[in-house]
Design goal:
The termini are far apart. The protein folds into three domains: 107 residues, Rieske [2Fe-2S] iron-sulphur domain (Rieske Iron-sulfur Protein), CATH 2.102.10.10; 57 residues, N-terminal domain of TfIIb (Single Sheet); 211 residues, Naphthalene 1,2-dioxygenase Alpha Subunit, Chain A, domain 1, CATH 3.90.380.10. The protein contains five helices and 26 strands. With 437 residues, it is an alpha+beta fold. The longest helix is centred in the C-terminal third of the chain and has 25 residues. Bound molecules: FE2/S2 (inorganic) cluster and fe (ii) ion (FE2). Fe (ii) ion (FE2) binds next to helix 4. This is Rieske 2Fe-2S domain-containing protein. It comes from Blastococcus deserti. It is found in: Membrane.
Length: 437
Amino acid sequence: MASGAASTTGWFPVARATDVGTAPVPVVAGDRAYVVVRLRPGGEISAFPARCPHRLVPLSTATVTEGRLQCPAHGWRFDPEGRCVDIPSLGAAGTPPPRADLAMPWAVEERQGWVWLAPDRTATPAPPRACDVSAPAPSPVRTEPAGPVFANLDPSLERAWHPVALSRELRPGGWLQVRLLGRTWMLRRDGAVVSADPPAFGVRERLGVIWLAPGRPADVPLEVPEAGDRRFVSSWLPPLRSPGPAAPMVDTFLDATHGPFVHASTIGPADSAEVSPGPVHAEPGGFSSVQEQWCDNPVDPQVALGGRPLRQRRRTTYTYRAPFQVRLRQEFLDSGATTTIVYLVQPEDLDSSRLYVRLLLSAGPGQPLPTPATAAGQVALQQRILTEDIRSQAALDLAGLPLDRRAEVHVPADGRAVALRQALCDFMTLGQRQLAA
Ligand code: FES
Ligand SMILES: [Fe+2]
């Protein structure tokens, strides 16, 4: 029997066979992390790497569907040999690229009530016949991506305006303690002036938010034309906290392919899983991208009256500004209604981010403004959607967003994800240059 933390040669007993069913079990062999699972009830045991190659989601959260292992984030499916056999965003006719296949262990076997795993080719073709097997040690392996990640305490973040509270959270004459970049700041409102202690480069109010810049900012503010448009009604969601870094959360807000999976119980079923590539246009401080997608639009009153079909075309314009600002303008092309969602993320600590989400709704040309009841219903729905995103981020368990292209596998629908990683690399470089100057 192999032993020793660093070795990956030899056979490792990783789990009791009776503990492995059709829910993946995380295990460790040597210094490598895997999941073991039966792809059919009572069937053979298969072993897969611990993370999905796409966005590195832990496969311990995967499900078994039709004899395949399905990742919960974007629905990629893997057969028992680790071949990626389905990428829903490519559509039914799409073929997954070979680089989407999993790097599988050399062998896995069930023997004497134990699951044995050999990560690398070994001289012994089968596990030992008889030996004293004790319960495997609990996993000490934390699987992190190869290469650098963009984390919440990145030094470049000193040089940006960050949202630290909604304006309404700081009453006249009041004070508020906030966390930003691993430090505590005290905000005070005296008359029209908001100040910070310890002093910062600047504190300002914009878009109904208090912003703080620790050092001279190098970012470009996000514009929200809908905020000054009388055809829109506006509501803030109560701020929520995510137990993870800001950059992967922004990645989620820019992603059009996770809806049918992460949001399966809210808006997911309404969206087509097939997503065409959305071209990305570079802009000062970030980028924009327009994406059209089929979706169900049950809130269109004409659907119930038979004036329009349920399945409609939606055009989404994504606008991103580094480091953590996103505006999503969703235009329902048949009804003329528009929903704009503004996402602002505050990097509080390494493993904590606060989310500010503003909803701006328009019923379309010639239509009365959305009623307070409609706006309240939309806010409640967005809160549930955001809670699903936060749960998915918590399961991701990464220190930051991978910046090395080779750490993940990108497909054509991931254009904005690639652009985000590049924009954050540029932001880091700009920050380093300014610090050196
Ligand atoms: S399908 Fe696994 S992370 Fe996207
Ligand atoms: Fe989402």
